[in-house]
Amino acid sequence: MITLTHQNWTLEVQPELGASLNRLSWRDHQILRPETASANSPLETGSFPLLPYANRIANGAFAFNDRQIVLPPTLGFEPHALHGLGWQRPWSVLRYGDAFVELGLASQACPDWPWDWSASHRLELGVDLAISLSITNESRGPMPAGLGLHPYFMTVPGTILTVPADEVWTTDGSLIPDRLSPPEEVFDWRQGAKVAGAPFVDNAYCSWSGQARLDHPDHTVKVAASSKARWVHIYAPGSGGFVCIEPVTHRPNAHNAPPGEDSGLVILNPGQTLSMSMQISVAVRNPSGEV
Questions:
Q1: Which pick of 174, 202, 220, 287 has the fewest CB atoms within 10 Å?
Q2: pLDDT of residue 286
């Protein structure tokens, strides 16, 4: 466990548990869901990185460069492969100081992903929390690649989420995207809506501004993602006191997108790198509700 502090911020990072975040607090506010006392999986923590792909690959299978790739299903999410390998591997600490840490991960070709790759993950506290994530193709041939971040933001009954996104992918019965639709076909967050009043949502939104905000009774949390993260996956299960706002560089199941679709999946040649970043900031709300 590495603890970072700066001004009002405290961040606990667990490199050995998939580079997950155990706790993020600002003043006396818990910003991310704290890890449960018995947590032994990043899925029970406050956030973790997604790579070399984000979200689901249908049945863990796709075709690439005349090869049929079949990945083992992710336990608990069968028959699909979910969120890549980064959250399932221990990361190495490359550098750290009082307010920053830089982590690294190297992965060789294996049944879970038949390409060699390396990754860098930096977290730094300043005025806000700045997170960057990158992946480099270390193979001898091209590799499909994608990135994402999976923060679980704390909510209370009155929390309002605003996500300026004009389209959403509806899904089939196994949560695989099937149609690009207006947001109201799932749930429209553009004008702000109470998280507690939303239906179950586990969908990727696009035509997104790269910004999102959570308005709590006494403070506001803002999320800003880099331009590479053109999709935002919202997971609002309706219970648990959290909502996930996940900036990602491709839509779910992009590996099986029809030819010509701008799915966001990137093909990295040997030595090429894909990067994304996200900032989380917090501000106090005054009695009138203004930040």
A1: 287
A2: 73
Specify the length of the chain in residues: 291
Longest dimension (CA), the chain: 61
Q: What is the DSSP string of 36-80?
A: PTT--SGGGSSB-EEBSS-SEEGGGEEEETTEEEEPPPPTTSTTS
Q: Are strands 29-30 and 20-26 parallel, antiparallel or unpaired?
A: antiparallel
Scan for tokens 């028959």, then name that residue.
79
Query: 269 lies in which domain range?
Result: 2-284
Q: Of 26, 29, 32, which is closest to residue 14 (Cα–Cα)?
A: 32
Measured distance CA(169)–CA(165) in Å, rounded: 11
255 is a domain residue = yes
- Please check whether residue 35 lies inside any domain of the structure: yes
Say what the alpha-carbon torsion angle 273, 274, 280, 281 is, to the nearest 10 degrees.
70
Query: Considering its fold, how many domains does the chain have in total?
Result: 1
- Its pTM stands at 0.95
Could you report how far apart the first and last alpha carbons of the chain are, in Å?
33
Residues of the chain where predicted confidence (pLDDT) is lower than 50: none
Phi, psi of 118 (to 5 degrees): -135, 160
Closest CA to 263 of 165, 144, 151, 149: 144
